[in-house]
Amino acid sequence: MAQAHKDSASRDLKRKHCTLSIKDKLELLRKLDSGVPVQSLCDMYNIGSSTFYDLKKEKGTLVQFVADSGLGKEMGGRKTLKDGKSTELDKVLITWLKVRVREGVEISGNMVKEQARIFHKELGLPYHTGWLRRFKERHGLKLRAVCGEKLSADNEAAAAFVDEFTKLVSDEQLSPEQVYNADETALFWKSTPRRTLTTADAESPAGHKASKERVTVLCCSNAAGTHWCTLLVIGKHLHSRAFRGMVHLPVIYRASRNGWMITEITSEWFERHFVPEARAHCNSIGLDKDCKIVLTLDNFQRTLSLSW
């Protein structure tokens, strides 16, 4: 009698509503085919028996929908079989995407959005922001890396430097206005995206030899974020044809054989540009004319020695 009452009470408990994604529904049906008991599946996916049997009846429709989509069994977080409002656009865009992927073209989100705008215009359909996210969810699209490597860092050395630098700032009573950091970055201006949009069930796309055409950019600012030094850009050609007819460049431009930062360029930038600019900024905000200024450099040559 007590057990019967317990079972009745359990059934009376309201189950939290749970809407399964298409991916989860397919997984559930595969487990059913492999012999997993119905009640175990209901408990596993937090659904009632009526929902389970509705899903079982829907199996043929689900399988056909996935087959027609051409996206395989991985449908991302999509939960319904309803088509988007712009079904025609989705069809032409997913076809365009598959063709580009087969051709080995690396596709970024911005490229898809630009192509979508073109198709929207051609089909006479309104374009809305946020469309790409919903499109990716509907079709199970993922950004995948074509190539890449993990960077490692010397964590112990970094921790030791933090302690040493903090002590320096405290001992010298430096304000954020007086603390600068400079770091270089490479701009591979001919490079295609490193990640490409693909259907979720596709294999990782094969990459191709990336273009090594580059310029190096040195960025520098103070910790307060109130002063940004003029950008230093380093290319391979001092008198590039792209500069013909240009009287003034908004950056400091230098050249080296590989377009890399070299000791001579760094020293010249420090003495002729950083020091005057940083000093002028500190003086403009009322700091002493001979106040101390600290510059930290990331990943620079060990042999470099700077002072003023």
Order of helices and strands: HHHHHHHHEHEEEEEHE
Whole-number count of domains: 3
User: Which structural class is indicated by helix and strand composition?
Assistant: alpha/beta
Quick one: how many beta strands?
7
Q: Which descriptor suits the 3D outline?
A: elongated
State the helicity in percent bands. Answer: 40-55%
Question: Proportion of β residues?
Answer: 5-15%
Major sheet details: 5 strands, mixed
Query: Number of helical runs?
Result: 10
What does this structure look like?
It contains ten helices and seven strands. It has helices at residues 2-12, 22-33, 38-45, 49-57, 59-69, 87-102, 109-123, 131-139, 155-172, 263-284; strands at 141-145, 179-187, 195-199, 215-222, 232-235, 252-255, 294-297. Strands 6-5-4-2-7 form a five-stranded mixed β-sheet, with no helix packed on it. The chain has a two-stranded antiparallel ribbon with strand order 1-3. It is elongated and about 80 Å long. It starts with a helix and ends in an 11-residue tail after the last strand.
